[in-house]
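In response to reviewer comment 3 from the previous cycle, which asked for concrete evidence that the modeling workflow produces usable outputs, we include below a single protein chain processed end to end. The sequence was submitted unchanged, and the resulting structure tokens are shown without manual editing.
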Amino acid sequence: MPAGSELPVELPHTWRPLGARVMGWFLVAALGVMCTMVWVGFTPEIKAQVTTFERLTFGAVGLGIVVCVHALTRSRVVASEAGLSVVNGYKRRDLEWAEILAINFPQGAPWPNIDLSSGHNISALGIQAADGASAKKAVRTLRELATALS
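The workflow returned the following structure tokens.
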């Protein structure tokens, strides 16, 4: 980085999808409340007919939903002086700035794509189009960082 140049954000900086986090955990809470209310509303005769296997299956489905929502809500993009860390669900990719050729965010795309010098590209789920202007600003900032730090 040239002496005296200013970075667009203080590093390290993290971007997370606000809308997806709020809606994901809201839906998990709403589903939990709804299932609890239905169970409480059952008569003792109906509750007695539910087998242990059915209870375990219901619990496994609920756990699966929580695991999927957690994967979505932990997605993030972290910029540091060393490079870019992209966490999509339970997978993490650490990139050096020199590896990044372009950061594209086409009109109508749900999240940006990062083109790499290896010929591959990865999605950055930590920045989501549903967040509107903040997502566009995040991509502009990442482009500036990639230019300044590569």
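The longest strand covers residues 83-88. We consider this sufficient to address the reviewer's concern, and the full set will be provided in the supplementary archive.
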